[in-house]
Amino acid sequence: MASATSLLSEDQFLCSICLDVFTDPVSTPCGHSFCKNCINEHWDIIEQCQCPTCKKFYYTRPELEVNIFISEMVSQFRQELGETEAEIQQMIQKRNLKIQEIKHSVELSKENTDKEIAEDVEAFTKLKESVERCQARVIKMIEEKQKLTEKQAEGFIKELEKEISELKKRNSELEKLSHSEDHFNVLQSFQSLIAVPPTKDWTEVRVQPLSYDGKVKTALAEMVEKLKNMFIKDELMWAQKYAVDVTMDPDTAHPKLILSDDGKQVHHVDAKKNLPDNPERFTVGLCVLGKQSVSSGRFYFEVQVKEKPEWFFGVARESINRKGLNTVSFKESYWTLGLKNEKYFILSDTPAVFSLKSKPERVGAFVDYEEGLVSFYDVDAAALIYSFTRCSFNEKLLPFFCPCFNQDGKNSTPLIISTVHYTE
């Protein structure tokens, strides 16, 4: 129930002479109320007593009556004012405490951030030093293996050259003997020279060249991939902080597209609806735009593509052509990702087709307007699918959706804007 003072206006508690809240309110015979001191001082300086409010004259100074009702109301009003003031002071105090709490949290966050940066820098420095040491050891080990191979080869070559030298020497002696006319000497030396000197069997001797197995490269590539995946997961979680509750704009939808009542789903039907051909509506492409736009900062939303064999979505400039046969991706108007014939593709000035290890069921789209970045993520796998970088944005960007044709019921599953579930 409202208090009595709440039913009266603030002016009813003010003295018309001092224009302040009544102090010792009294009433004149004509029924008007004033502060006791205010009315007495007023009458002390004029020749004939007159009511300041209704201007009624009194030949003799009238007797003033204490206005009990006003006194009680003023008392209650002052009490309520005091209580309100105390409540406001308490609210101010609570908010000042909250400010201090927030500032303290920011300070702690800054300390933790500085600590984490320092520890990460130290960890990366140690990792870099460790990699450099491992690199030096690996290079040294490979070089030592090469030196052993060269040393072994040198040994073999020396043996072979020694045997060649001995064979040449024997051959030279045989040539001299063949030209000698001293038949007695020829017969005497024949038996010793005709025998081939003992030599090593070099048939099975091999110098095995160092083979390249790529083990180190493979191990490092796996380590880099693990680090990359870890960072991408953190990157995705960071992007999800900029989630926007995106809904599709029915005024832009092609007449053969059916939107759900909440503007979160869209699919294609053969029957063309009779809709007004407003300037925003697509008339050729089976497309629909989102209501929400981005012209600065960051923007993120997710789309469920599970069980859809064909689709594409992303963002587009607000000024895109919606009436003609618009070819998506040309002239830097679209930044989209899609699926067709089991192949994923991106549409830009240089379209590209690629395969993915796993088929994403939810795809996240992230825009950093100032950085000129549009990235697509496999949300469940926490993997980066593709990033457009160094994009030139100079107008609003809108979410862009195309569920593609539903031929013979083979692509009837709708394209669905998902709720973003962000977790630390």
Largest sheet: 7 strands, antiparallel
Q: Strand arrangement, largest sheet? A: 6-7-18-9-14-15-16
Mean pLDDT: 85
Report the radius of gyration as a whole number of Å: 48 Å
Based on CA inertia axes, which overall geometry fits?
elongated
SS class: alpha+beta
Strand content: 15-25%
Structural commentary:
With 424 residues, the protein is α+β, with helices and mostly antiparallel strands. It has helices at residues 36-44, 68-179, 183-194, 215-240, and strands at 25-27, 33-35, 49-50, 57-58, 65-66, 257-259, 265-268, 288-289, 298-304, 311-317, 334-340, 343-347, 352-354, 362-368, 373-378, 383-388, 397-402, 415-418. The strands form 4 sheets. A 7-stranded antiparallel beta sheet has the order 6-7-18-9-14-15-16, covered by helices on one side. A hairpin with a 6-residue loop joins strand 3 (49-50) and strand 4 (57-58). Helix 2 (68-179) runs antiparallel to helix 3 (183-194). The longest helix has 112 residues, at 68-179.
Question: TL;DR?
Answer:
The protein has helices spanning 36-44, 68-179, 183-194, 215-240, and strands spanning 25-27, 33-35, 49-50, 57-58, 65-66, 257-259, 265-268, 288-289, 298-304, 311-317, 334-340, 343-347, 352-354, 362-368, 373-378, 383-388, 397-402, 415-418. It is α+β, with helices and mostly antiparallel strands and 424 residues long.
